[in-house]
Every structure is written in C-alpha cells, then in structure tokens.
Design a protein that fits this description.
The protein is mainly beta. It has one domain: Alpha-Beta Complex (Fumarylacetoacetate hydrolase, domain 2). The chain contains four helices and 16 strands. A seven-stranded mixed beta sheet has the order 4-3-13-7-8-10-5, with no helix packed on it. Strand 1 and strand 2 form a beta hairpin. The protein is globular. The protein binds magnesium ion.
C-alpha cells in the first residue's frame, strides 16, 4: 500500500492523488493556457507515487519530461461539501512534490482533446517529500516554496499568488469528490517548469522547515 511519511515518522496510507492545474497565472501563460473559470482537476494512480529515496526513472515513452514543483496537501479528515471556513481542519500535513509531466504527450493530448492520464500518471510521476504535520505550518495560505535544478533556482512558489487558494481547493474538490483520509492534493505549479535530463538533481524547500531532494537516473 503506497504511503506518505511525516517528519515525525508517522506514516499514512495514500488514497487518491488529486492534482490542480493552472493555479498560477504566470505558469498558465508560459504554456499558453487560458485560466479556466473552475479549477482544472486531474488524478494520478497511486502507482505513480515515489519518495525521495527512490531515483526517478524517466519514462522511455516520452522525450520531454518536465518537473512541476508543487505544494502538496495530505487529507487527515474525510469530508464532502467542506466549507471554506473548516477547510484547513481537514489537512493533516504539508509536503512538496513533483508533478512530473510528459509534456510532449500532454501537448498532443490537449490538441486532440484527449485525457492526460498517460502524460501525467506514469510510474514515478507523483514524487513526494516527507510531510510537515499541519500544526507546524500555522499560516499555510502564506506558505512559500522553491525548486532548484542542479543548484540553479527555477521556481518560486507563493501561496498568496494562487488563483484558487487552499480553502477554495478543499471546498471545490469536496463538492465534486468525497475527500478521504490519505488523499494527496497537488496544488499547482508556479512558472519556471522545464525538462529533466538524466543525472539531474532537483532540490526543493518549504518555508525554512522542510527540504527535499530528488535524483534523476
Ligand atoms: Mg502540476
């Protein structure tokens, strides 16, 4: 059973993996995407989950796999139709993740109006760090994070710049899906996405509290 780990060593079995797309205007613009009136939601299979101690194996069916550094939520309390005011109570922890994307396949799928599962859900495409317990992040709506590739800063994330903020994401997702304990929610990537190459090292940080490192085979 795939699981995530907290920094205090607890583990939690992963249920669904939800992802929000186009949640930062500058990233939507860099891919030439419109910002939709409702969040773009897609899912990854749990077989996509991968931890820092597992080396990323780029899939052979793509020639252009992009990193997308994201803040990841883990649900600790199930709910349907969660109210905005209660949304943060349902979040058990905050982590960092890579929404790895076979951009060539995704672009082809988008042109044909086809689903993104093959481009977004391959083995290892949902990389996650350990998770900070929620009480260690008292101001999640103001959280910031960063991503470096081979020591060069590529992405800066700032939750205050999200088009759909964390309470709205919880409210919206739970209006369409029952959120379950162990669900992961990738909250969208800021601008600065780019391709990964064999041998790359990706490092990420959340506030001054959590660091993660992912190696590409
Ligand atoms: Mg993404």
């Amino acid at each position: 059973m795939p699981a995530i780990r907290f920094t205090d060593h607890r583990e939690l079995a992963v249920a669904n993996i939800f992802c929000i797309g186009r949640n930062y205007a500058a990233h939507a613009a860099e891919l030439g995407n419109r910002v939709e009136p409702e969040p773009v939601v897609f899912l990854k299979p749990t077989s996509a989950l991968q931890h820092e101690d597992q080396v990323i194996a780029l899939p052979t069916h793509s020639k252009e796999v992009h990193y997308e550094g994201e803040l990841v939520l883990v649900v600790g309390k199930a709910g349907k139709h969660i109210r905005r005011e209660a949304a943060l109570e349902h979040i058990a922890g905050y982590g960092l993740g890579l929404d790895l994307t076979a951009r060539d396949l995704q672009t082809a799928a988008k042109e044909k109006g086809l689903p993104w599962s093959v481009a977004k859900g391959f083995d290892g495409s949902a990389c996650v760090s350990r998770f900070l317990p929620a009480q260690m992040v008292p101001q999640p709506l103001e959280a910031t994070f960063w991503l470096d590739v081979n020591g060069t800063r590529r992405q800066d994330g700032d939750c205050t710049l999200m088009i759909y903020d964390l309470p709205y994401i919880m409210e919206y997702l739970s209006s369409r899906f029952t959120l379950q304990v162990g669900d992961l929610i990738y909250t969208g990537t800021p601008a600065g996405v780019g391709p990964l190459q064999s041998g790359d090292t990706v490092e990420m940080g959340l506030l001054d509290k959590l660091n993660a490192r992912f190696m590409v085979a």
